[in-house]
Design a protein that fits this description.
Number of strands: 20
Radius of gyration: 25 Å
Shape: globular
Strand order of the largest sheet: 6-7-8-3-9-10
Largest sheet: 6 strands, mixed
Helix content: 10-25%
Structural class: alpha+beta
Number of helices: 9
């Protein structure tokens, strides 16, 4: 962010106090977790949208629910907001159970993909609308709305109509309208989905900076893995109403627990086979030895799932495209033929039809000596990778 705006603070704080207030991470005296779901289930007829779900969102964190359409992430968000009620389980916000508490009485606010701004109102009236509904005096409403607009860098836009604003500016108004209520938790349901790619990437950094500045707990719903990895402290990958894996972005990317997570978080190469043993691998610990379906032996010494696959288990060896080296024929590694090379600007993505391991995707930064510079489609090549770049996952 270009400048560090003042954080939104309670109305009873003076401006001098506000300017020196530290970001809340976590808030003093607050519960360790702002949101807890314990064995929560939500059904719609015969469809189980959320299935015995348990998760905890740490106070002051940016937490993302990531998964494909229909995985239950939006329903989970609506359960926290109070728009839906669980059929079973317990939901706590700030340590207090909220069973039966309606949405308007929960100290949370939600920002949707479609911002639902009032076109007949100016910006400051949109932001202050919730405060007006609560009976907050007009002078205080405008003061708090002004602070919220300063936080999202829209001071000076108070008298604009929302239809005069760009998409990114409208999104900031929606954020200010939610933040002005000083919620314990801010819920965001794919709020960047209507923006173009360049603006979407810029707003990802703005959102993370905003969350860090305020210290408010953000729960963010998205199907975009890059978006989740860019902004989040922790990510829960969902499928079929359940969390398959939860952790920090690096762990999810480098140590997925199964094929679905590895495939959903980024691009992966999958090589099928069966575990035939283990071997010492220097300082990195034991490597899982896998015999592929074509009779080749591979060693996977990356961080293995717990429990690790046993001898005889069917597995897939997972190797990320950026961990593969691409070289000319005759070098060390597996032989093959370059069948496709795509120039992506900052990167080059190649596809190699190997002799024994199927087709592999290779990606490197443009100008990297391992990116296969000077090679052309149709050339005979070799591919190789370190044992620590490979992980063996249950098939």
């Amino acid at each position: 962010m270009a400048s560090a705006p003042s954080p939104v603070v309670p109305a009873n704080m003076t401006s001098a106090t506000a300017s020196s207030a530290a970001p809340r991470r976590p808030r003093e005296g607050a519960a360790r977790y702002d949101v807890e779901l314990v064995n929560v289930t939500r059904r719609f007829g015969d469809v189980v949208a959320v299935d015995d779900l348990t998760l905890s969102v740490e106070t002051g964190s940016f937490y993302s629910l990531l998964g494909p359409s229909g995985c239950g992430k939006t329903t989970t968000l609506r359960l926290v907001a109070g728009f839906e009620q669980p059929d079973a389980g317990v939901i706590r916000i700030g340590g207090a159970e909220v069973e039966g508490v309606p949405a308007y009485r929960r100290n949370v606010n939600t920002v949707f993909q479609h911002y639902a701004l009032f076109p007949h109102m100016d910006v400051v009236a949109n932001v202050a609308y919730g405060l007006k509904q609560k009976g907050v005096p007009e002078a205080e409403r405008r003061q708090r709305a002004g602070r919220a607009l300063e936080l999202v860098r829209l001071n000076g836009f108070e008298r604009r109509r929302t239809w005069e604003l760009s998409g990114g500016q409208q999104q900031r108004v929606a954020l200010a309208r939610a933040l002005v209520n000083e919620p314990t938790v801010l819920l965001l349901d794919e709020p960047l989905g209507a923006l173009d790619l360049k603006l979407r990437k810029a707003m990802q950094h703005e959102l993370k900076g905003l969350q860090t500045e305020t210290g408010i707990t953000f729960i963010y719903v998205t199907h975009d893995q890059e978006e989740a990895l860019t902004m989040s402290d922790r990510v829960a990958v969902m499928r079929g109403g359940k969390v398959l894996q939860e952790g920090d972005p690096k762990t999810l990317y480098e140590a997925p627990v199964d094929r679905f997570v590895a495939d959903f978080i980024g691009v992966s190469n999958f090589i099928g086979g069966r575990v035939v043993g283990r071997e010492a691998n220097g300082t990195s610990g034991p490597a899982v030895v896998v015999e592929t379906d074509d009779g080749q032996r591979l060693r996977a010494a990356g961080r293995q799932p717990d429990p690790a696959p046993a001898n005889g288990d069917r597995v897939v060896v997972v190797v990320r495209p950026e961990r593969i080296r691409l070289g000319r024929a005759g070098g060390a590694g597996v032989g093959g033929r370059l069948v496709e090379s795509t120039y992506l600007g900052e990167a080059i993505e190649s596809r190699v039809q190997t002799d024994h391991l199927g087709q592999l995707v290779v990606r490197h930064q443009n100008g990297d000596p391992d990116a296969g510079g000077g090679l052309s489609v149709g050339d005979e090549v070799t591919v190789s990778w370190d044992d620590t770049a490979a992980v063996a996952l249950p098939e």
